[in-house]
Write a structure and sequence with these properties.
The protein has about 220 residues and is mainly alpha-helical. The protein has a domain of about 110 residues: Tetracycline Repressor, domain 2 (Orthogonal Bundle), CATH 1.10.357.10. The protein is built from ten helices and no strands. The longest helix is centred in the last third of the chain and has 19 residues. The N terminus is likely disordered.
Length: about 220
Amino acid sequence: MAAMNAATITTTPTPEAGSNGVGAGVARRGRPRDARCDQAILQATLEMLNEGGAGSVSIDGVAARAGVGKATIYRRWSSKEALLLEAMSTDLRAMESPDLGSLRADLEAYFWALLDRLKANPNTDLLPHLIEAACYDAEVRKSLDEYVSSRQKPLRIILRRAQQRGEMAANVDLRVVVDVLVGPLFYRRLLTGDRLDRAYVAKHLDIVLSPALLLVP
């Protein structure tokens, strides 16, 4: 699978950051926000993102497609990255938490579904774009952390269920386990471009689920 290509980006802050959205700034006084306008902006952002990746999304382009002025967008979101993150958070296609009776079976089903999603978007530049922005923008960093945590919820459910079945020690730090499980996949995805398939997932789980490592009392 091809690695994701990072886009060169420029975060475009404005002195009048918006309210409520992911990564948005301090709320401004004035008339209430129009939910229909918000939806049009977020929908336009998702459409552009799906069509050409993060590099194709611009505030000018979103404004034109949504039929609003740029100032309307900047009153709501402090940067392009803040807008991207909120648009992503509206995508309700969350990963499921398979319940097949064992930790191994649940994780295999989860990661097979994740592979299908990655294969559907082999060259997207969105994640590298946001990671780069998060390196120098604390607001984007916070919002990206919140987004990632929300997307990891199904995996944490699988792990807690395994603890309840006695397959994992109760005192294992699930945050670390999630890092161990997910990290190698995105290392290949973002850095090496090495093959990601079911055979790799099987080898990965053989190592991670080894009793000698961390998953049994």
